[in-house]
């Protein structure tokens, strides 16, 4: 029995709000859903398991129709799904009333329910969220009957406010496979017979790395094979650049441009600068946007000062005394505490810019 397991598509989400490429990103999410349906056409799994948060928020009837239209393109593949915390079933909502295509089973109740597939010798268990949070570890006490059939649990959660899970208990529950949603980082854990498929495509900048779905196979005796299939989607990529005292705003722009060209102009970058910069140079996020889609910018650089030389030149004055007060051994490596480090450079900069070489005094 072959299955595809996906979760957390978050249709209707608009990532990177406020950035010029944000609108495109909402199309990316729909494109990933289309790619999943294409993968089903190609792989022809016996089941498509959807482990919650198909929608980012309460879906409108139009959004429900759009999702259902995609499922209806694979009429021969049964789809079983549950609602997660984001698309939890509200009384009287469009989601509660919607009637899905014949191949789709929505386990919409708050109590565990099953859908049996006699041809596949398989039973899928699951229930839906009816509130944004469920703090009870409801899955830990669920067990699969020992009836010779394959039992799959469709589940959503895994953190404190969303059905915390105990992997050992799940592993001992008798389920042949537990298809999890909610955590957006994919993780296969065949030893505990479970997997988080992760979000189908990344929906915010913390979701770096590959995204996609789980392709799995269960033999009638319960042997489980799992693999992760990444989808070609736009990624969030960390870009760390180490500057030197020779780096200028222009040369940095070139370096970052080369990086974004190499890793793809359509991807989105989280830029962090480290190293020592010329004290007279500032790196501005607005200027670096010309290098590509920079969603975050962190400047951890410190100004470069030739401390050895300064100590020699200013042996007799306030500047030398100031440096010695911070650096007992005369090395910047002593500045471990970031606040102390920042204080040292701010102070040094202020002293140097007010130093009068004529008189050897600080004005
Ligand atoms: Mn969720």
Helix content: 25-40%
Q: Report the C-alpha radius of gyration, rounded.
A: 28 Å
Low-confidence stretches: none
Look up the CATH topology of the largest domain. Answer: Purple Acid Phosphatase, chain A, domain 2
The CATH homologous superfamily of the largest domain: Metallo-dependent phosphatases
Query: How do the SSEs run, as a string of H and E?
Result: EHEHEHEEEEHEEEEEEHEHEEHHHEE
Bound molecules: manganese (II) ion
Percent of sequence in beta strands: 15-25%
Q: What shape does the CA trace take?
A: elongated
User: What is the helix tally?
Assistant: 9
Number of strands: 18
Explain what you see.
This protein has helices at residues 22-43, 61-71, 94-97, 167-171, 249-263, 285-288, 307-313, 318-326, 338-353, and strands at 2-6, 47-50, 79-81, 104-106, 113-117, 122-126, 150-156, 177-181, 187-189, 194-196, 212-218, 224-230, 236-243, 268-277, 293-299, 302-303, 355-356, 361-362. It is α/β, with parallel strands linked by helices and 363 residues long. The protein folds into two domains: 2-230, Metallo-dependent phosphatases (Purple Acid Phosphatase, chain A, domain 2); 236-362, no CATH class. Strands 4-3-2-1-11-12 form a six-stranded mixed sheet, with helices on one face. The protein starts with a strand and ends with a strand. The model has no long low-confidence stretch (mean pLDDT 94). The structure holds manganese (II) ion. Residues 52-53, 84-86, 156, 182 line the site of manganese (II) ion (MN). Manganese (II) ion (MN) binds at residues 52-53, 84-86, 156, 182.
């Amino acid at each position: 029995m072959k299955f595809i397991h996906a979760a957390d598509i978050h249709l209707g989400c608009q990532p990177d709000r406020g950035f010029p490429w944000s609108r495109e990103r909402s199309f990316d999410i729909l494109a990933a859903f289309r790619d999943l349906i294409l993968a089903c056409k190609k792989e022809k799994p016996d089941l498509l398991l959807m482990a919650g948060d198909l929608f980012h928020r309460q879906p409108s009837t139009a959004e429900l129709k759009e999702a259902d239209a995609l499922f209806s393109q694979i009429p021969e593949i049964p789809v079983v799904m549950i609602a997660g915390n984001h698309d939890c079933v509200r009384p009287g909502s469009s989601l509660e009333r919607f009637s899905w295509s014949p191949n789709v089973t929505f386990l919409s109740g708050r109590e565990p329910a099953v859908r049996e597939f006699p041809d596949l010798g398989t039973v899928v268990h699951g229930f839906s969220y009816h509130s944004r949070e469920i703090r009870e570890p409801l899955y830990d006490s669920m067990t699969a009957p020992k009836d010779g059939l394959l039992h799959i649990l469709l589940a959503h959660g895994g953190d404190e406010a969303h059905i915390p899970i105990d992997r050992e208990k799940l592993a001992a529950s008798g389920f042949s496979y537990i298809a999890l949603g909610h955590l957006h980082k994919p993780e296969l854990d065949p030893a505990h017979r479970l997997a988080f498929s992760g979000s189908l495509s990344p929906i915010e900048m913390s979701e770096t790395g590959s995204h996609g779905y789980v392709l799995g196979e269960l033999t009638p005796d319960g042997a489980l094979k799992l693999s992760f299939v990444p989808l070609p989607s736009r990624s969030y990529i960390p870009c760390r650049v180490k500057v030197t005292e020779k780096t200028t705003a222009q040369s940095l722009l070139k370096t970052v441009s080369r990086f974004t060209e190499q890793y793809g102009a359509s991807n989105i970058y989280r830029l962090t600068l480290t190293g020592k910069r010329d004290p007279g140079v500032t790196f501005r996020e607005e200027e670096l946007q010309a290098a590509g889609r920079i969603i975050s910018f962190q400047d951890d650089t410190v100004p470069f000062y030739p401390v050895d030389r300064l100590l020699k030149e200013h042996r007799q004055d306030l500047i030398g005394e100031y440096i010695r007060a911070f650096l007992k051994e005369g090395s910047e490596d002593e500045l471990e505490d970031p606040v102390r480090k920042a204080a040292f450079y701010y102070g040094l900069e202020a002293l140097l810019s007010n130093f009068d070489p004529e008189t050897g005094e600080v004005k």
